[in-house]
């Protein structure tokens, strides 16, 4: 260590990592701790907006924020590098180009696609998982439209988009496609009825875990705008140009296949020897890795138990952001003493966008919102995070809803 | 025939076909002739702007004009269909969905890629030949950039663009790429030096046929902006991901391969039994097909001899437009008598765009222009055609240079 201050390293600049960086600068005076943030890119991105990048309804740059624009670089050392391994015993992090030692570590490396061993899914399906992977989906769809228009006897299958999973991301993504495809059809002179959007979900309803009334609303709204749902249907296999689904092994030819059906912790977490349960680490109520009082695991790398239900909280941006508060507090306590805080989720509700001006959701008081009212609330939710992160200036620059 | 007026059918709504339609409505009163324009699309496009569509420097819609917006549909019957065959003896044209008989025919079906039997060129190289094929190039390049960014160990070869031919189209295209690639690099976070643009030309200099001083200027300007020229170099073979060039059979791996090295008449012309010389029909000085007094062949389907040099004129939009005047006059003479006019090219000079604000060329009085001055002239030339076609309104709507 270069100083005698305790060094806290945060791995990953997603929702959890960014908010933890910010909270740590508030919890600690400059002389009390050294704070290091390691990230693959020099930007943070809004994971919850990536389905819009993938559909092409927002520009890539709307979804990302330069880290140095919102993190106080006088207080936080930024290192742009890729994590290769965490050595818990030596308390070091191996990066592609460097090695760092830590006193405390915050693992917030985000999620990866979990394909549950479905043959071909890893190879042939796209994933809405980073700025780069989402932009690739957008460009792939447009490229197929361009190819279709330039072929002598094109197959309409090239225009078909199959989405695996009708959870939050899958549903929001097809909602954006419902808006985007008519625009692309116009741009490429392709009749709208030639483009099929099919969402395949193993559960009997869309948005499993959501209130049934809201999920029904979503399904009806999306069906009315041309999305076909195949519910109660498992994907058996994915090939380069088709998906095989259901017990009858129906083949659905498709030009674009996107998997939104499952996520797991960044593979670095398992590789570094943290025990995984269903792909993530079951952290203790103070958000520390079991057996490692110096390692906090946040966001999509962790399962945090909901004591009331006995089940883990579903992973959302809202939870990741709130975890940062608990983590920062507990880091201060770990270093300077006091009482560790247990994570307590303050559920502010959840709103899903359905594309265009439609949305639906539930707000903190349990009220259900539909349509434009829900859409406005969605924008408020999106902007609240930007406000927490970068104040009114960031809302003005990157916000969805510009109240100023 | 549905009327007893002579029916003139124009095949193709490119520069020659559009201007012929317009000139015929001026040459003939409504009761004197029936005018039919057959085209594959409901739009006309600026072939000379397609290299910009292919590079992505202008939007597709800037390059096209709805035919009905500029052709008087009270006078000209528009048929959107694809020509399958011309039966010269029966005086009929077979379309995909119809058959038409004519008294006089104007063949202005444009060009196709001529690959001179280079193995793999037809299959693996793109061509700047229509709105659809040009847009596909743009989308292909962007898709490669997106793929590169989303790969674990991407090869920089994916970013390499090889252009075959440094004639007018090839040179103008690499000029647009010189402008476009830095923008794409910024958009996709790719360092500019990872992208190679290589233009392979069999002749010892770029722009063969152009004034040497001007061609040198173009080569220097483009080289300075990152284009690599391989002159005196034949393309031997094209594979999916590489081009094999020169006597040493050097392999150039590339993600995008575009052929601009040769064009020939639309294949319908040869298929219908017109005799081809180097891929086109040698028309007589009145622009009629040899042996067929009722068939005029214009634009890129024809070679028109320059009596002064004994060589055919190089095919340009300017020539196509002027041919329409001669063709319309000679159609009137054919029907009502008089003296057939021989085509006489009024050379107004030629300006090549080199991308961005650079250009070079020669104007009608032989003066050479460079840089911004040439660029302005290029816009004037582009807009002059729009003016001829659709008057000031069209210049205002689609023009490059808006003098109003």
From TrEMBL, chains A, B:
<keyword id="KW-0274">FAD</keyword>
<comment type="similarity">
    <text>Belongs to the NADH dehydrogenase family.</text>
</comment>
<dbReference type="GO" id="GO:0019646">
    <property type="term" value="P:aerobic electron transport chain"/>
</dbReference>
<dbReference type="GO" id="GO:0003955">
    <property type="term" value="F:NAD(P)H dehydrogenase (quinone) activity"/>
</dbReference>
<keyword id="KW-0560">Oxidoreductase</keyword>
<dbReference type="Pfam" id="PF07992">
    <property type="entry name" value="Pyr_redox_2"/>
</dbReference>
<dbReference type="InterPro" id="IPR051169">
    <property type="entry name" value="NADH-Q_oxidoreductase"/>
</dbReference>
<dbReference type="InterPro" id="IPR023753">
    <property type="entry name" value="FAD/NAD-binding_dom"/>
</dbReference>
<keyword id="KW-0285">Flavoprotein</keyword>
<protein>
    <submittedName>
        <fullName>NADH dehydrogenase</fullName>
    </submittedName>
</protein>
<feature type="domain" description="FAD/NAD(P)-binding">
    <location>
        <begin position="7"/>
        <end position="324"/>
    </location>
</feature>
<dbReference type="InterPro" id="IPR036188">
    <property type="entry name" value="FAD/NAD-bd_sf"/>
</dbReference>
